[in-house]
Design goal:
Elements lengths: L1 H29 L2 E8 L3 H8 L11 E6 L8 H10 L13 E2 L7 H9 L11 E2 L3 H11 L7 H8 L4 E6 L11 H4 L5 E2 L1 E3 L5 E3 L7 E3 L1 H14 L3 E6 L1 H6 L7 H24 L5 E9 L2 H5 L4 E7 L7 E4 L7 E3 L3 H8 L13 E4 L4 H42 L4 H23 L9 H20 L3 H21 L3 H4 L18 H21 L4 H21 L7 H19 L5 H24 L7 H10 L3 H21 L1 H19 L1 H10 L1 H20 L3 H21 L4
Parallel strand pairs: 1-10, 1-11, 2-14, 5-7, 5-10
Antiparallel strand pairs: 2-12, 3-4, 4-6, 8-9, 11-12, 13-15
Helix pairs in contact: 2-10, 13-14, 13-24, 13-27, 14-15, 14-16, 14-27, 16-18, 18-19, 18-26, 18-27, 19-20, 20-21, 20-26, 21-22, 23-24, 24-25, 24-27, 25-26, 26-27
């Protein structure tokens, strides 16, 4: 009887154990999980080189893209990974590299953690990863008022019972560098389990530094952690970082051979993981940093690749960028949470990644190279443009003051003045050209075509000439914006996804062009039909301003909060100026109430849209509605800081100052001549006043308002210079 009881108990125990193991395996298989492979120093060229090899078909199954790695400080890896962990632009700290496994420092780790945090860890599980210097990292972000919370990703997963683990490192020599733990740790700097020390490396004399990643060790533990049901597993693959430390001691050819070898090993490792990928499991490969040489060459976007169930291929995008093939580092943490079905905390500012299958990988490679090329050559195009504009304005003033009889020079300057005002239109059309022309070719092409058109425009009457220039300045960018903004986003005067200040809509450059060009068109329309102008010019002003405001407020359009306010202010100011009516209190109050109501309506409509369709206008409005005043304060601080920095250092500020000084010179020393122009062209005078007022509002309300103000003022100043210097009767 006793033997039977023992047998029965043993049988039940075995059966229950098998049942529990089977149940655990089934739950782990169906539970969503994400494997993040963090590779410092990985570039898009590394991936592309392997991609072109037919020996690695795995890469063609992934969704590919590139990340903007802008942070609160710089592109350095420590700031980038801290930003990823917080889902908001953050500031890292060098002490954050020094994380340790509980068994690695033996009895020293708990006292070390207590020394820096003041917290006692009563029970420390073997294998737990600790970052003793977490208070320093938190303080760095509080001091800079970034609003970012390092460790927010791990903290949120912990609150929802999702397991996390970290493996691998980027140690070089005796210096630890363990950044992967920043993605898995909670706000106390604790990751439940991991291997981040010497045990993750193999010793070899065939690699610089003598140590390489032990991929078999990583594979074994990743598979075990997946079987245990861990939701987030991060593997830091640091061989490219270790290789980069020895770049100067290697020949270029040998360095590139070793680099390709390391990248191939990484891709092979990813392939093994992808082949064993189960349902609801995703593999995300991303670069933690870029080589110094790439940053110096203006290649500042990091590669990202995603393997998931469903269709193969496609390109990555997000609600942050709304551009196929582009995402931001602040989108990684929200993506992981979304894949693991965990709600996003409000402190995260990014949006989950999405896959767009309408674009091919070939399209992505070409587009990514074009973005890099535009970013690298933008100064070589815009600096000469602004420099020539300043020179022409100054030379025109000198001729007006000291060379009134030199008709030939005045005529040549008149051609150049027209050409300068046409350049924004030409730069908008430039992306239609095939290939990537060099700045020299662009300069020759624009000069030839621009001067030819200027010669034809010079033959036209003053009002007709500048009506045409005004129309081609604002109508094409507005139409392009309504149909998707393909030309604006690839224009040298468009926004720059590499900088990451704006990814969609209309930037300050073309906002200034819209302001100046549209008001110049209204003014010259009045000059051409002076008899009936008092009736229809105010109506024309209202119609144009409302269409532009609609475009600025539309989330899929301009998405420009400052632009909404600028054009509403221009409308408020311009109606009495163009109509010649007297400013009465009743009118001002009624119009102000109307305009505030219209602006509020546009903000509310944006606020009501779904999260992925919402622009940054709607997200800012959410902060206002929820009473998140610290974040509103940070937004205002960033905008003011950016504007002040541009005013002090930008070439656009020099253009604005020159324009302002010229206006003051005319008022004090050419007063009679200016009065003759204003008497002859009253609607043009109204246009000058309205453009100047709009430029001032743009300067005050936009984070890069000096750019918009500078470009807008050209549409008031250059026609005035042209008319005062005119050689024709």
């Amino acid at each position: 009887m006793k033997k039977k009881a023992i047998f029965a108990v043993g049988f039940c125990g075995v059966f229950l154990s098998a049942f529990l193991l089977f149940t655990t395996a089934i739950l782990a298989q169906n539970h969503p999980s994400v494997i993040v492979l963090l590779v410092p120093q990985l570039t898009r060229e590394d991936i592309h080189m392997i991609y072109k090899s037919t020996a690695v078909p795995l890469l063609k199954q992934a969704s590919i893209g590139e990340l903007n790695i802008r942070t609160a400080i710089s592109l350095k890896d420590i700031h980038n990974i801290t930003t990823i962990s917080a889902g908001a632009r953050a500031a890292g700290n060098e002490w954050s590299r020094y994380a340790y496994r509980s068994g690695e420092k033996r009895a020293e780790l708990v006292p070390l953690y207590y020394l820096h945090t003041g917290e006692v860890l009563h029970s420390l599980r073997n294998g737990t990863i600790l970052l003793p210097y977490i208070p320093v990292l938190m303080e760095s972000n509080e001091r800079r008022n970034t609003g970012a919370i390092p460790g927010l990703l791990g903290e949120t997963l912990e609150q929802h019972g999702v397991g996390r683990a970290i493996i691998g490192n980027s140690d070089t020599g005796s210096k630890p560098s363990r950044l992967g733990g920043l993605l898995t740790m909670n706000r106390k700097g604790i990751t439940p389990q991991g291997w981040i020390g010497e045990e993750t490396l193999i010793h070899t004399s065939l690699f610089p530094g003598g140590r390489k990643t032990d991929y078999s060790f990583l594979t074994y533990h990743i598979q075990n952690w997946k079987a245990e049901g861990n939701g987030l597993i991060v593997a830091e693959l640091g061989d490219l970082e270790r290789l980069a430390r020895h770049k100067n001691s290697l020949g270029t050819k040998r360095y590139m051979e070793l680099r390709q070898q390391v990248v191939k090993e990484i891709v092979t490792f990813v392939g093994e993981l992808a082949l064993k990928r189960e349902n609801n499991q995703r593999i995300l490969l991303l670069s933690a940093s870029l080589p110094d040489s790439d940053i110096a060459d203006k290649k500042r976007m990091a590669p990202v690749m995603l393997w998931e169930n469903g269709e193969n291929g496609g390109v990555l995008t997000s609600g942050t960028t709304r551009q196929p093939g582009l995402a931001a580092n602040i989108d990684i943490a929200p993506s992981i949470l979304a894949w693991l079905k965990v709600p996003l905390p409000s402190a995260m500012k990014g949006q989950p990644l999405m896959v767009d299958h309408t674009f091919s990988h070939e399209w992505f490679w070409e587009t990514a190279e074009a973005i890099d090329y535009i970013y690298a050559t933008r100064p070589a195009v815009l600096y000469p443009y602004v420099g020539v504009t300043i020179a022409v304005i100054v030379l025109s003033v000198l001729i007006l003051f000291f060379g009134e009889r030199n008709e030939q020079i005045r005529r040549m300057l008149s051609y150049v003045l027209l050409f300068v005002l046409l350049i924004p239109f030409f730069l908008l059309l430039l992306p239609l050209l095939p290939g990537s022309p060099s700045p020299v070719i662009i300069a020759l092409l624009l000069s030839t075509i621009g001067m030819g058109i200027s010669l034809m425009l010079y033959r036209l009457p003053f009002a007709v000439c500048f009506l045409g220039i005004g129309l081609v300045s604002w109508l094409p960018p507005l139409l392009d914006g309504f149909i998707g903004g393909e030309l604006i986003r690839r224009s040298y005067l468009g926004y720059d996804p590499v900088i990451g200040a704006r990814y969609y809509g209309i930037g300050n450059e073309y906002m200034g062009v819209l302001l100046g060009g549209s008001m110049l068109s209204v003014a010259m329309s009045g000059e051409l039909c002076k008899k009936n102008a008092a009736r229809y010019v105010p109506l024309l002003l209202i119609g144009i301003c409302l269409v532009i405001v609609l475009y600025m407020a539309w989330p899929r359009g301009g998405s420009k909060a400052g632009g909404i306010l600028v054009f509403l202010a221009v409308l408020l100011y311009g109606i009495p100026v163009f109509s010649g009516s007297v400013w009465r209190k009743r009118y001002i109050v009624a119009l102000l109430v109307t305009l505030v109501a219209v602006a509020g309506l546009f903000f509310v409509v944006n606020y009501q849209m779904a999260g992925e369709q919402q622009s940054h206008i709607g997200r800012a409005f959410i902060e206002v509605m929820t009473g998140n005043w610290p974040e509103i304060g940070r937004i205002m601080e960033r905008k003011l800081t950016m504007n002040w920095r541009l005013i002090l250092a930008s070439i656009w500020s020099k253009l604005f100052i020159v324009s302002l000084l010229v206006c003051l010179l005319f008022i004090y020393y050419k007063n009679e001549q200016v009065r003759n122009v204003t008497r002859q062209y009253p609607y043009f005078t109204a246009g000058i006043k309205t453009i100047s007022f709009g430029a001032l509002i743009a300067l005050l309300l936009n984070d890069s308002g000096i750019i918009a103000a500078s470009l807008a003022m050209l549409y008031a100043l250059i026609p005035l210079l042209y008319r005062m210097m005119g050689t024709k009767k």
